[in-house]
Amino acid sequence: MRADSVKEYLINLIGPKEDFPLEARIFHTICLISSIILITSLPINIFYGFYELAILMGIVQLVGLLLYFLSRVYNKLKLSIILFGLLANGLFVINFYFNSGINGPGLMLFLLCIFLITVVVPRKQYPFWLALNILEVMALLYSSYHNTLLIEHRYPSLFLQYADIASTYLLTALLIFIATTYIRKSYHHEKIVAEEKVEELKISNETKNKLLSILAHDLRSPLGSIQNYLEILSELNSDEIDRKSIEASLLNETKNTQQMLSNLLLWSKTQMEGVSVNLLPVNLKESILPAIRAQQSIAIEKRIKIEENINKSIMILADRDMLQLVIRNLVNNAVKFTEAGGQIGIEAKIEDNICLITISDTGRGIPYEIQKDLFSLGVKSTFGTQNEKGVGLGLSLCKEFTELQNGTILFESEPGKGTHFFLSFKLASALN
Asked: Which CATH code, of 3.20.20.140, 3.90.550.10, 3.30.565.10, 3.20.20.70, is assigned to 277-432?
């Protein structure tokens, strides 16, 4: 718990990634670490007798903290970076003169400076800061070479000189290591996030492509059939029996197309906008009877008997509209793929606070090759016993809406013998 608190505190100091870009978080880290380094260098400079440097670094530390607050609190990152770069370059020029020139750690600090600046500044600013850094170093080397008396060798002993260089190297290496590690970690994290977004976009595009494919393919066929029926009717000179037969086929085709369009539009809405689920105690029989009756006319035409055996007292936890859509699609599929004279059974039983709903038919069954993908958008469309168009989208919706209601959907099917769909929902009494 203590480690989590420390981690949270550090994240707040640097800035949450949700509120600050990577460059800002790196800059805040550099400012804080630089302040720590400056604090540790104060007693070292006092010990060496470099009192001017100690005072200067104290001032720089305060300025660095002000730049940190300017970026972290007031969100002035660009201004803070510019001021930081100018301050750092100015500091290292002064340090070069007051800290023994090339005999001190000055050149090492210039390398550190250009590294830290290029980490946080935009790429288009690289030439400016690189040119400034190189010009400063060249000018310092040139002036100290042509005027050896300009820079005083201030170390009282060789040991202190080496100790200063060694301590500066260690602090520089530490800062570079921390900055590089932070950059690599942040890059890795953002790479993973980017890859996840790319994958989500890929799935979204595949879904949209599937939808367009369904629209282009599955709607073309029924609409073509409707057009053919209308053309035949317009040219028909036969008896009344032929006309009624064609009109009945036309009506069935129109109903199937309407059902398909309804599923497509509803599925599109769920994918684009999401859906809200309103789980309430509902009477199972009262809720699904309208969905069953909606399929009765088609079943009667095919001489299919639909038997319902559901206790009137069963109360389940469900969304009434979603439940009706699921039942309507499953019964509609059963009617489509059951031969004339067949049977469809709908029953429910209770087991351990769970209501199990079974929808069975004596139809042609589901081919084994498509059973594994039955609830996915990748399932191939099939035709019913009277060439009714079936589309896997309906079953995909059934699965999605069932699971949104905290239910499950399974099936068993044997080609040539029929199919059983099994739905499970929590009883309303399970809430108590």
From this structure: 3.30.565.10
